[in-house]
Write a structure and sequence with these properties.
Blueprint (H helix, E strand, L loop, with lengths): L3 E4 L2 H12 L4 E3 L6 E5 L3 H11 L8 E3 L3 H7 L4 H10 L4 E6 L16 E5 L4 H10 L3 E2 L14 H8 L5 E4 L10 E6 L2 E6 L5 H8 L4 E2 L21 E3 L9 E5 L8 E2 L6 H18 L2 E4 L8 H12 L4
The chain binds threonylcarbamoyladenylate and magnesium ion.
The site of magnesium ion (MG) has 3 residues, from loops.
Length: 314
């Protein structure tokens, strides 16, 4: 049986909450990418997520909340962390913080870590569902492990339709790129994954540089496997032009003859289209040439995903 795809309505939010309460899996739209949601407090439901995604067990999940009260029950906020949450929540920022002893998120969802990744999504349906449900939902991106993240309900259906209970269809995701993950060590903020909020914006808010995980002491995002977001096709990065038989992914004005992430050179637009365009090219080509994309703003996150998509173990 394939999961039902339903529009966002009060009835379907109630149905989703009921399924989640019974330990089921529901794909939900967020402003970044679609998430595969389960009751964070139910270890059986959490383990169903790992199974449906085919995800390595050691990879911890993000718990999604919809209020400060819910967030503070789960994790301890330093003044810096609170400043980030106040500026960017609800939104595309995930904060890795010390987990509270009285929190509801299961050990399994945290993969046994002492820390917890928390995000308050901006998408109205996601926030409404968490509020109706009354406690945090864990939600990794709703794709099979290693596949490209879904930015439309049909992507979720193609990847996971037979393995989950319901898909809430909120249309295309506005940001189209996973959240930025920020941790903190003794020295201050540490970037664990570039994403939908540009690193420079965080540094500007805090008035101090954001250190990259590779340069930080003991902290890292366990899920940041080198080969991730992998299409079937081989990617050739920083290509000036496509060769015979190659698909062409381009960016910016004057770039014709391929699929252009943003003909006007807008990195926000490019981020929102990246995964859908990668999927479209992957369906048609065995090799994809990718034109250069600047490293500024959201370009950092876009290039990070493209490098992972290009990386092959073989
Ligand atoms: O935009 C997003 O963040 C989407 C939407 C659905 O919210 N979710 C998402 O989740 O991208 P996922 O599971 O695909 O990626 C979560 C990342 C993983 O790389 C994981 O290793 C890292 O977060 N992570 C989770 N808990 C962590 C922790 N305690 N410490 C460090 N990294 C953590
Ligand atoms: Mg993912």
């Amino acid at each position: 049986m394939t999961a039902r795809i339903v529009p966002i309505l009060p009835e379907t939010i109630a149905l989703a909450a009921e399924i989640l309460g019974e330990g089921g899996l529901v794909a939900i739209p967020t402003e970044t990418v679609y998430g595969l949601a389960a009751d964070a407090a139910n270890p059986e439901a959490v383990s169903r997520i790992y199974e449906a995604k085919g995800r390595p067990r050691f990879n911890p999940l993000i718990a999604h909340v919809s209020s400060w009260e819910m967030a503070e029950r789960e994790a301890a906020f330093s003044p810096l962390a609170r400043q980030c949450g106040e500026a960017f929540w609800p939104g595309a920022l995930t904060l890795v913080l010390p987990a509270q002893a009285g929190g509801q998120v299961s050990d399994l969802a945290r993969a046994g870590l002492e820390t917890l990744a928390l995000r308050w999504p901006k998408h109205k349906a996601a926030a409404a569902l968490i509020t109706v449900f009354g406690r945090p939902l864990v939600a990794p991106s709703a794709n099979r492990s290693g596949h490209v993240s879904p930015t439309r309900a049909e992507h979720v259906e193609a990847d996971l339709g037979k393995r989950i209970d319901l898909i809430l269809d909120g249309g295309p995701c506005e940001v189209g790129m996973e959240s930025t993950i920020l941790g903190f060590d003794a020295g201050g903020p540490v970037l664990l994954r570039p994403g939908g909020i540009a690193t420079a914006q965080i540094a500007e808010l805090l008035g101090r540089p954001v250190c990259h995980a590779a340069d930080a002491d003991a902290i890292s995002a366990p899920g940041q496997l080198k080969s991730h977001y992998a299409p079937k096709a081989r990617l050739r990065l920083n290509a000036e032009k496509a060769e015979d038989g190659e698909g062409f992914l381009t960016f910016g004005p004057g770039q014709t003859g391929g699929l252009n992430l943003s003909p006007t050179g807008d990195l926000v637009e490019a981020a929102s289209k990246l995964f859908a365009v990668l999927r479209a090219l992957d369906a048609r080509y065995e090799r994809i040439a990718v034109g250069p994309i600047p490293e500024t703003g959201l370009g950092e996150a876009i290039n990070d995903r493209l490098q992972r998509a290009a990386h092959r173990e073989d």
